[in-house]
């Protein structure tokens, strides 16, 4: 078994980063350390997810986060794991998390700021459906050793130096970009390592899958209603997993569009710019796709608050442009 795996898999994550060090504007050792810290935490979270039901990590934690989400035990646990791993790695000076009201000060000599959704798709944890982690990496703006400033924390998406997601699915995958295309790594549990499984992933220019929660259809704008009707007239396939990372990853492979529009409940939609939309917008663009708020490029949006929401239209370029033409 392991010899068959050894023949078929690509190179390990660390080796890949070293082989491609020209693709990161800064010392590749720093990127290696950052991705190693994230990968380590993801392996711990992955192991806990695989034991859900056997150990007590299901259900609510009995608390709410800053965006009003009921925190699941695994939300809190994943947040702790990623925070600890990044604190130990020493490269990160400040951490923005869905599960923390303000940013967390880590190593003041660190050169990087990370925004993270530690556990995406919380509503799916207890029903054994794929969930994910989403992260963005920025370079700090203030001098090393000085206090963290707002300029370090509220950077627009085009300032990202790296972004990625982990998908805890039928296999656990780490997908990331440093601005030179998108590479996918699959976790090999028996070896405890991530190995390259897809290099330079390109999202199909067009597609026939649309992801939107039609439970909110009554409060969709006329334009969104028109686009959903267009998808039905074209006999597209509707797929909505309820985990953004899983819907996004499927669209990366097969082509498709994911929409979380303004609804009666949230006039700016539900998804958060800093730790969900910016990272996936960077990855979408790096694979030839598109990501807007229905009008403006996501990566150009100047953030004004840590947990701000934006309407999110992301996926195959032709599909996003068709949707925008009807809005
Ligand atoms: P999170 O679990 O990190 O709060 O994110 C959940 C998001 C996203 O993953 C998913 O696509 C969306 O919420 C589902 O929202 P609805 O249940 O409102 O459709
Ligand atoms: Mn949440
Ligand atoms: Mn999320
Ligand atoms: Mn989350």
Give a verbal description of the structure:
Homotetramer. The structure is a single chain. With 327 residues, this protein is an alpha+beta fold. Helices cover 32% and strands 23% of the residues. The protein contains nine helices and 15 strands. It has helices spanning 2-8, 13-19, 28-49, 73-89, 150-153, 222-233, 244-254, 273-286, 317-326; strands spanning 60-64, 70-72, 92-97, 104-105, 112-120, 131-139, 162-168, 172-177, 182-188, 193-198, 209-211, 237-238, 257-260, 290-292, 312-315. Strand 1 (60-64) and strand 2 form a beta hairpin. The radius of gyration is 19 Å and the shape is globular. The structure holds 2,5-anhydro-1,6-di-O-phosphono-D-glucitol and manganese (II) ion (3 copies). One manganese (II) ion binds next to strand 5. 2,5-anhydro-1,6-di-O-phosphono-D-glucitol is lined by residues 69, 98, 117, 120-123, 213, 242-244, 270.
SSE order and pairing:
Elements: H1 2-8, H2 13-19, H3 28-49, E1 60-64, E2 70-72, H4 73-89, E3 92-97, E4 104-105, E5 112-120, E6 131-139, H5 150-153, E7 162-168, E8 172-177, E9 182-188, E10 193-198, E11 209-211, H6 222-233, E12 237-238, H7 244-254, E13 257-260, H8 273-286, E14 290-292, E15 312-315, H9 317-326
Parallel strand pairs: 3-5, 11-12, 11-13
Antiparallel strand pairs: 1-2, 3-4, 5-6, 6-7, 7-8, 8-9, 9-10, 13-15, 14-15
Bound molecules: 2,5-anhydro-1,6-di-O-phosphono-D-glucitol (AHG) and manganese (II) ion (MN) (3 copies).
Binding site for Mg(2+) 2: 117, 120, 276
GO cellular component, one term: cytosol
Catalytic activity: beta-D-fructose 1,6-bisphosphate + H2O = beta-D-fructose 6-phosphate + phosphate
